Amino acid sequence: MSSLLQRLALHPVGTDLGVLEETESDHGAGTYGAVGARSRSLAAQLRGVRTSLAGARIAFLAPPSRGYVDTLLGILLAGGTAVPLSPLHTSAELAHVIRVAQPEVLITTNALADKLEPVREGLPVVVLDRPRKTVFAHDAEPNDAAPAIMLFTSGTTGKPKGVVLSHAGVAATLGALEEAWQWKRTDRLLHVLPLHHTHGVVVALLGAFWAGAEVRFATFDPKTVFERLAHSTVMMMVPPMVAKLVEALEAAEPAQRASMTAALRSMRLFTCGSAALPASLHARFAAATGHAILERYGMTEIGMALSNPYVGERAPGLVGTELPHVAIDLCDEAGKVLPRGEPGELRVRSPQMFTGYFGDSAATAAAFDAEGRFQTGDVGVRDERGYVRLLGRASSDILKSGGYKISALEIEEVLRAHPDVGEVAVIGTPDETWGDIVTACIVVRAGREAPTLEALKEFAAKELAPYKLPRALRVLSELPRNAMGKVQKQALRAP
Ligand code: MLC
Ligand code: AMP
Questions:
Q1: Domains (ranges, CATH) in the chain?
Q2: Given the CA of residue 297, which atom of ligand 1 is nearest to it?
Q3: pLDDT, averaged across the chain
Q4: Which ligand is nearest the CA of 315, by number?
Q5: Out of 63-72, 301-310, 356-365, least confident range
Q6: Pairwise CA distance, residues 392 & 274, whole Å
């Protein structure tokens, strides 16, 4: 059995509860034992659908819930590769993931079954809340090298690619974070992140399970968060969440504010990552709550790489130093390691490293340099203590908005089909709260009128998840191009 499964299966059966849904408070059905039993029953059923699941991808669409957790763990126990799908995604996006991942089976809930129907392509669908035939089977024995999870993240080349993480890779991430952040079985995680990206799935959810801690899901909104924090010890955020919590605190009347901050007394750790947390926001959060946020840096492909210390200075605007067993060089374009203080690209070696982009060995090979280091495309600089400050990304085609990585090219491809759009370039306009604001720069098609932002959004919403839609529109007479005809995005981004 892989070290990941051994660790997840270790928790005593009666350990209080794996997972609570937003509306639930009954603990009985949520012990690790109960989650384990339901996962094993699902795993057995999956092996009834297809005898050998070793290496098979199993895609699943479920809201943050026990059903999600049972399914994720069930797939891992059955020896399959879990491919989480997002309820935020359109049919076109789900179809893309299914086309790339080539799953053998789909799993969903009654409520979401209709969403999968148009994209299921004749694949068998297991519906979680319908009665199932129990099939007896032994646990499969995935080893450490076996693929565990496939997560989709945008490449510079357009549509998202499937990042494959092995059991060993995931276990390395969870082990490093347990050590660095002092995860304990007594922790209670308030989980507010989406469950189709590494932050929500690996760092937060599996991070808690690795420690045998409790997880409570909630939809992110400040009111709910302050209510739930009173029962929590750990919360993980992306920068816009920090901004919204700070705004809510600063806007509250003194008495109300006192009760909001009193709710934070049980908290031992707030972390933030996935996008840059402005130093000013770090300071405002600390002033309003007394908590210094621990900012860390990672990437789907490499896992978690840099972190501010749990004990020691959590420096605003910096992402800290290497997590255990991670090695990072700051390099020039040729891969030469630069002296401390000079900005360079972060290149990474890590036991957490992904095993490849599924079905795309050329992209996998291109992601590593001649020394075998993963090229992140992120540029940073180290201070005298070794803490890294991130300065931006090498590519203008990769945006980070709301903590989501977004491919400008994927949005351009969709907008180009709008009848009023002649040419289009999508850029990120810097914003304190959102990181990048997705901005469509268009040249109107000859003989047509300029579309409104709303019209473009409505058009694009048929193909793209809400978080990828343009939030700003600039209508230009032409796009700046170089002699080769390539659009100069840096020129468009200049104020
Ligand atoms: C929302 N709004 C935005 C926006 N999203 N404005 C600009 N840019 C955006 N991206 C604004 C709009 O005004 C919108 O109104 C209003 O907010 C409410 O929209 P919403 O859709 O209800 O927002 P909300 O659901 O609250 O979403 C915010 C969020 C979400 C922070 C909860 O973005 C989120 O969950 N982000 C997490 C992403 C994540 O997990 N990334 C991890 C990747 S892994 P209107 O009128 O426009 O609708 C990774 C590796 C690592 O990166 O290191 O972790
Ligand atoms: P993803 O492809 O969704 O895994 O996103 C990974 C990217 O998120 C990294 O390459 C960085 O650009 C960005 N990122 C993650 N954490 C931070 C952080 N703390 N500060 C700035 N950028 C970050």
A1: 3-143 (3.40.50.980), 398-493 (3.30.300.30)
A2: 53
A3: 91
A4: 2
A5: 63-72
A6: 13
